[in-house]
Design a protein that fits this description.
Helix content is about 40%, strand content about 20%. By secondary structure, it is of the alpha+beta class. The relative contact order is 0.10.
Length: about 950
Amino acid sequence: MKKLNKFVLFLMMMPLSIIAQDLKNEDKIPFDSNVKTGKLKNGLTYFIRKNSKPENKVDLRLVVNAGSILETDEQQGLAHFMEHMCFNGTKRFPKNQLVDYLQSIGVKFGQHLNAYTSFDETVYFLPIPSDDKEKLEKGFQIIEDWAFNANLTPEEIDKERGVVLEEYRLGLGADKRMMDRFMPKMMYNSQYANRLPIGKKEILENFTYDKITSFYNDWYRPNLMSVIVVGDIDVAEMEKKIIEHFSKYKNPKNEKPRKIYEVPNHKETFVSIEKDKEASDSGVQLLYKDSGLPEKTITIKDYRDDLVKGLFTTMLNNRLQELTNTPNPPFVYGFSYHGETFARSKEGYQSFAMVSEDKQLEALKVLVVENERAKKFGFTQSELDRAKSETIANYERSFNERDKTNSERFVSEYQSYFLQGVPTPGIEWEFNTIKKMLPTITLSETNDLIKNYVKDENRVIVLTGPEKEGLKQVTEAEVLNVLNVKDTDVSAYKETEVARSLLRNEVKAGSVVKKESNAKVGTTTLILSNGARVTYKKTDFKNDEILMEAISFGGSNLYSNEDAKKVQFANGGLTEAGFSGLKKNDIDKFMSGKIASVSPYISNTTEGLRGNTTPKDLEYLFQMTHAYMTDLNYDNEAFESYKQKQSAFFKNLSSQPNVFFQQEFYSYLMKENPRFIGIFPDEKTWSTTDYKLAYDKYKERFANAGDFEFFFVGNVDDKQIEDYSIKYIASLPSNTTKEKAVDLGYRMMKGDLKKVVNKGSDPKSNVTIMYYGDATYSPKEAMAMQALGEVLTIKLIEELRENESGVYGVSARGSLNKVPNGSYNFSIGFPCGPENTEKLSASALNELQKIINNGPDEKDVAKFKEGEIADFKKDSKENRFWLSNFTKAYTFSSSAEEILSMEERINSVTAKEIQDVAKKYLTKDKVIGILMPETK
């Protein structure tokens, strides 16, 4: 930070004319020269960029500037229905051949292959291999067919009705009911209030075929489309393909105008207070809608204005974040920004907060007062300096990663440019420009912004929360009264002194007593004088990323049953106290402009710390690690603040039927486990939670650094990491004790069991089928079990979704575990209509039985292999993948080198091995859990 401040100070001392001599207000923001862009004669726009992360992959995206806002009254829901139809068969890929082909080349349905429909656009995602000309050509055929050659046969439309209605069913619940009531006020008198993308049930059930055909013909046209291609490709070749595949299509002769639907202004203040018996949380939203249309960012001046807006937003949200860390927080979280509403044509200044059920008015007042405080007194120079530091740090990181940026990020950038004109000058231009602009931005500019945002007209307040006996209902009069802030309620923000260091105690360095290396996985291990081990792997996957995890066996399984119950939900709040005598707000302020974070954890069998940083800020990560292991604060007020926020979050969570089901289902399965007290805390649990005991246990768990191994992966420097390890890790207290993972012997109930839970008023159900038990861990069986989950998922999608139209989504997963005990787990899960739970459960079990009896189809095994190898090749170029591999090897007491044979192990899986694990583990007891609506 010191270096940055000197740099900023140096720039501020220069004449502004020199700083900005190549930036003229009226000049247009350039377009990124790394992107090839053009427009075909028919109006289709394209963007192409060569980018080699991930290698041998290309992201194809079809963007249609048309969504639900363009539907007629008879077409409500058909923009989204059309998205579904594109996956149900095209001219070149009829029926299910499209998904079948893509799975055969390693593209997983839902995970890789996907799409979305919103009010204003429909977007299709297709990531495919780029190192095979045939696969690449097929990819272009697919997006061409999506654009112009979907098969809209009556048979396929009627089959898909059930799937879309299941997706509609998934969205039912408290949130939808409340949204249906507040949208007419939020999007007052506009088309947006009546065009939610999912549509209306009666229309989805009964629309005639011509309605969806006309939507497709009217709006899927070249001059409303963009094709975006980013990946490990040849740009000139991709341009030829776009011309070849898309030039021949014409726009309709009498094309409908692509209307921009505006949101009318209103003088009144609208208040919407919505309650629901199944609402799981309480929220407050304060919206000041702009009176005019959004202003596009076109010129250098526009770009600078956006930068000022960003600094304002950062400063205000820093204040709101500070409030959440106070002893009596007004909300669980809160944030404000100026930007897009539900409507692309209407922006506004918006403040949100998630609150306790009885604190809505208090939270609203805080949001109003903070807006008024900013309006009346503005911000301080220190706040602005910190916001500038944060901004430059984030842009610098993006700049440093400019050659290691994932293709998907570029694709999204060009999509925003096409749809909304969001500038895309490239990170090189942006970083250099921001360095020049930031020093010229003054407090008066950021302070003036809110005066244009907050006004008495075009104002909407939305309160959402539970309806329950004994809870006082807020009135509209009370809400309006809160908006009238008195001068005595508002005072200037008080700046506190910024800490000078993250550590307050002297650090006595240790030493490295031994070095080891493993050339096969590229690691170096430092064995330190206190017994701690530091293993690091230097990679070039990212220029500005270093990940860390420290891990030690032990965990809460070493506690007594009674102690475990008292600390289970307290552990998450221990870090709220801060460290080194610094409160969380002190730490946040000190870390402005620095990128480093560390989070301690205690699991059942291990304790550890996870962190991430940049090479420049690596020392701060080491300092945080040292502080969390030696100098965690004890602060009752901070813990009470944590309890209040957690209680607000969890208090009504079980009002949500799916959450209630999980709580009841696992309480049933775990009733013989004396340590189980629920999957989330209630008031009774909080009353027995012991913060002091949790704190003491934490200190005990982290007292022996000699029992920890610290793993680092990323752009590390050998000397730097050795120096910091000697200073901050070798200096940690230690002893010679070596702990192990302990198996307490507690298991979920066994038997052929069925548990039905009734909750909720909507016709929604959920089915969970589980197989589990003890097993001797085998890497080969673990791979076969994983493959079983994948191949069964393929079959379940084909049968339950495509053939029976009974579900929107369905999945199966299988795994074997080794710690603390050898075990297997296999599950099948899907949501559906209550009337179909038994039928679809039988269908799912029948598909499993086919594999048990006959083994899986070879083509499905091949799909599993293609998908897993594609994922492995991509993931193995990520730091997180390697960190996970090292910690898994530590936990399983296995070799990290096993990962080197991953492709070989995937390819060696046979249909017989999959059948064998299915026979061995899935012909025994099973548990079925079913969520059903409440009976009336």
